[in-house]
């Protein structure tokens, strides 16, 4: 289980296998390869070459390969993962999905929803 942290270093949720859960243990989505899906199996977004895209193919953020940190389109810190898994895709997707569903910081809430 990998914990997901927001920009304030507060626990936002976690990743168990390829499933994403909020901190209240509600299933929020899945990570497969470089793509992120909502609980209904619909594409929510994907990552390509460190750029995070929404389901419509528009770039919405960036992901750092060196420290698993995710930034929004304005290069503002969104969150990070203290992780042993090697998927940058998962780290970026987790924040954008959770930020969109929970509303988090205003700039992340419009990424997917």
UniProtKB/TrEMBL annotation:
The chain crosses the membrane at residues 85-104. Pfam families: Bflower_2. The keyword Membrane applies. This is Uncharacterized protein. InterPro entries: Bflower_2. Keywords: Membrane, Transmembrane, Transmembrane helix. It comes from the Bacteria. It comes from Clostridium pasteurianum BC1.
